[in-house]
Write a structure and sequence with these properties.
- This protein is mainly α.
- The protein has one domain.
- Helices cover about 75% and strands about 0% of the residues.
- The protein contains four helices and no strands.
- The two termini are about 20 Å apart.
């Protein structure tokens, strides 16, 4: 189960790194002209919701926060999956 949690955290890390690289060159232009992409980024990287509150989050913290968020989500999913598998 630990390996699966690590895989969830790695997925969160990679998602945040992808969005950081994608938005780095022209973030303001993409956010203004493509609200669908911004919505997808906010859905897959929950720390971006802090930007709606006017809180500036450094990229390094955003990547780590997203990895931790995905790890917690993975812990919940894997716990429920393990319980469901044991009841069969």
């Amino acid at each position: 189960m630990k390996r699966r949690i690590i895989m969830w955290a790695a997925a969160g890390f990679l998602v945040a790194v992808f969005w950081a690289i994608y938005f780095f060159p022209t973030a303001a232009n993409i956010i203004a002209n493509h609200p669908g992409i911004w919505s997808l980024a906010c859905f897959t990287c929950p720390v971006l919701f802090a930007s709606h509150l006017g809180i500036g989050v450094p990229i390094s913290w955003a990547v780590l926060a997203n990895a931790a968020t995905y790890a917690l989500l993975g812990l919940a999913v894997e716990t429920f999956r393990k319980q469901a598998h044991q009841t069969r």
